[in-house]
Amino acid sequence: MRDGEHFDAAQLTLTGCPVGSSCDDPLTLILDAEQLGPQDFLAPSEDNWYVFEVDTTGQFRFATCGVTSCDTRIHLYDYCDMAIFETSSEAFITMSDDDCDLQSVVTPILTAGETIYMRLEGDGDCNGGNGGIPFQAEFLGGIPGCMNIEACNYLPIATSPDTCFLAGDPECPNIGPDLIINGPRAFSTLELTTESNSDACMISEGCIQGYGTREVVRFDTEIANIGTEDYFIGAPSAQPDQFEWDACHNHYHYEGYADYSLYSAGGSPLPTVGFKNGFCILDLGSCNYGGGPQKYTCSNMGITAGCQDIYSRYLDCQWIDITDLEAGDYTLVIRVNWDYSPDANGSYELNYANNAVAVCFSFERDVDGNATNFAKYEDCEVPVDCLGHPFGMEEPDCAGNCPGFLVKGDLDQDGEVDADDPLMYADLLAEGVETSAPCVDLNSDGTLSITDVALAADCAHLGHNHLGANGVEDHCDWNGTLLVPDEEVFFSLAYPHEDSSFVDVYLHNPQSWVSGWSIQLEGATFTSMTPLFDTTGYAHLFHMNSSGMAFGVALEDSLIHKSTLPQPLVRFTFEDAPGDICLLDVAEVTNEDRHNVTANASGCVTPGTFCLGDINDNGIRDVGDLLEALGVFGCLLECGPADVDNDGIVGVNDLLIMLGLFGDPCQ
């Protein structure tokens, strides 16, 4: 195993465990599809793994209902990896817990050729003191449904024919799915808690709005199909246009399924707070709306007419992040199928007026800024969008226009953030323009900085739908200010060259790939700046002015590499330096995600007759200088000329600089 930056893979091997203890060494479940009725089995322990090789396509039933009285749980998976085993619904294809009293039942559709892993657990005595868990398995047969693709009630997964209604039949207008949100369940499960986040991936997909400890309001989302037809989605591989791959959680997201939006007490949308969910749409739990049996799973998605899907509040991202909000009253709106799209079968819902609910809550903040006195209340006022539509999603643009036409970050107003816009941002920064205009201030921190330039460049280069390491990423959807808590960089000065005409700035960035940086020098009139790192293939923009303000930004995805040692960044030529040249502690840095990291800049140097690296002052950089430097190696205070890079210590980087100058005479 490796750790840190070079972590590669992990392997878990279980030894000495009985068969069935893990999916790596499961028991084999053999089911006779020709036999009518349930077939009885006895799992040997309280926690059992089975492998089931599906040889017939159709609907199956696995259950403990009626054959035991203990509390049982059934989970089905389509993969086995005990090293990174995940127990939540982000991993299983279907599950059951207490769906028939304390017992469980699942009735999935499975396809011939699939390998299914079943985990069966039980608590207490499940078999009258004889050990093990009795359960049943059964092949229920084919999937009945209309198999005529021309019919208005065509069911794509049907394997046995049923009644069809062709276009024009009076029944057709009454056939369709109808999705609703269970508002009382969302309200009753609202709760304030905290979540710790160190993952940029969670931020990039909009799940959470910052790093560190976050205050979140969790809630359940139950989506039911009260229509007369299944809401059919199918497998991601069969419907690629309706799914996006999410590498953060290693699963697909169904587009347009569930949307969580927050509104202020006055009804104003809070666009940086919210999330779109939809990693799995399945029949979960007993069908509570008059339908069934359940048949859809995470590998073959949908909601049977009369059944429901449930996103538990204990799942990742099943929350609203309120950390950066002021105390007050807020309205949470939960929407389903918010873009009114048809399902994968081409069926539109019978009714869209019931696709959203509103639940309200309030909180205060104590003297330390922590959320307290959380309260929820019913009878919320329904938010309206800027066009006056209840539960509508039309929002003003960054300048307040409705319907909006201005694009945030589009300085040349050509309708998109393109390659010209980051250059215009850089010009504004170089000119010292100060603005907090919402259409310009991309990270909403109230000022124009190198972060805005970096964000604009990233958006112009990669756009809204970039297929990156974390799946499809929107590089033009900006959150507020984001500071990564465990990344820190340092800027320092090296002593001026012996002719007192230039000074070098070093960058020490052990944890961060750098996409943008800005620094401020003082003490001289600065005449030019030259990068000292390898810029081959590096699409970049550099700027400095005579007063010592300087910045650099990657225009594409080329970054300044991490370095465990200080590395030369830029060289400044200067004139008119009456005293010390200093770095002011006003630096700003963005990492590879265009998030801010803690930046430290300090140190002064005194121009004069220096000969960099000539510690013994004999006019040449030689062995004597190296020996003197080694003699004070590790010095942490007032280290003198041996601290070549002026970072406050005599270390490896000083020796490397001296070796690079070795043998050169002083001028």
Mind explaining what this structure looks like?
With 667 residues, this protein is mainly beta. It has 4 domains: 27-142, Jelly Rolls, CATH 2.60.120; 179-377, no CATH class; 483-605, Immunoglobulin-like (Sandwich); 611-667, Type 1 dockerin domain, CATH 1.10.1330.10. Helix content is 8%, strand content 32%. The protein has 6 helices and 40 strands. A hairpin with a 5-residue loop joins β26 (356-365) and β27.
List the helices and strands and how they pair.
Blueprint: E1 27-28, E2 39-43, E3 47-53, E4 58-63, E5 71-77, E6 94-97, E7 105-106, E8 109-110, E9 115-123, E10 133-141, E11 144-145, E12 160-161, E13 179-181, H1 183-189, E14 191-197, H2 200-204, E15 212-218, E16 221-225, E17 231-234, E18 243-246, E19 251-254, E20 258-264, E21 269-277, E22 301-303, E23 308-311, E24 319-321, E25 328-336, E26 356-365, E27 371-377, H3 420-430, H4 450-462, E28 466-468, E29 471-473, E30 483-493, E31 502-508, E32 516-522, E33 525-531, E34 540-544, E35 549-554, E36 567-575, E37 581-583, E38 588-590, E39 596-601, E40 604-605, H5 623-631, H6 652-661
Parallel strand pairs: 1-3, 11-12, 30-39
Antiparallel strand pairs: 2-10, 3-9, 4-7, 4-8, 4-10, 5-6, 5-9, 13-16, 14-15, 15-24, 16-23, 17-22, 18-19, 20-21, 20-25, 25-26, 26-27, 28-29, 30-31, 31-36, 32-35, 32-37, 32-38, 33-36, 34-35, 37-40, 38-39
Helix pairs in contact: 3-4, 5-6
